[in-house]
Amino acid sequence: MSEEEIFQLEKRAFFSKTWLFVCHQSRFGKPGDYHAFDVAGISFFVVLGRDMKLRGFHNVCRHRAYTVVRKSCGTSTRFSCKYHGWQYDDKGGLVKAPKFDESPGFVRDENGLFEVKLIETREGLVFVNFDASTMKLPFNNVKSHVDLGNCSWVDGMEVTCRTNWKTVANEFSNQAQWSQSPFGWFSALRKSKIVRLLGPLSSIKELDDDLWCTMVLLPRSSSEVIVRCDLYAKEGQVAPAKTLEKRKWMLEQELMAVTKSGAEEKSLTGQRYFAYQCGGRTIDLFAILAQHQRSEKMAKRKLQPAIRLTGTADIDTEAEALCDALEGAADAPSLEMCSRMSSFPHTVEW
Which residues pair with residue 74 across a beta bridge? Predict the structure, then answer.
């Protein structure tokens, strides 16, 4: 398999059904605050509703899959698709669908945004899972070993690393193991800085006594990963601007060094291996990929857990005919071809 084929397999077998840390609840100060993310092409956003509950949604309009949220962050309790004006509320419900509301058989309640499973821990850590099979998935409570409940976000940045995501993930794992080792040569001279994994794509590290940083990997391709770095200060503590800029510069230099070492390592070995500790056991990525690949061979098709199946081909044909007719396409089929009640009670991906 090529590196790109392996990356797509990782997307189907790993990213699509693993609990992933994305941010801390302090990023959401008031109703409507939202943040958008992209993991291996899976675009989604997290928003704080007016009921003060965090929810995650796929960043895809149910009409024709156009992007709903276009900024990386902002504040809004309404999200509109610019293609045909479909509008959604902060609970993902469809509140406006021009020309469709009066269409026979169109059920507004069945065409809201696809929700992403989201869990917020007691420490305020926000995790998501894209698996569409069920909304009830077991979650191994990941602890940061840091009282982030008493911290608030103060600054952040994104660093683009031209390397495979596993290169940086391995570095996160190595740092976490080193920080917990009692045999470091400096252990007798100074207190070791805390570094902990928050799942396979993220870590939290102590920068200073009152300053922490979460680092989240957002893989883009087999050779590029975005690293989201967010800095948090303890409540009541003010981090000087010069200190924040220095820490951000140091984090960027660290990531660039990892990127360079990863390129050198690949030139020598030709491959990258990745495993991490979770819940007292080792999670082996290769084993997960091999199992998923076996399942795909048995099914004789690619298994993509994050994709929502909305109905049969007939339903999609009806939806397409309705869209074309409402847009006034010259060669659109007649609406008479669409049965009035037929299969529209099913959830349709418009």
Answer: 34
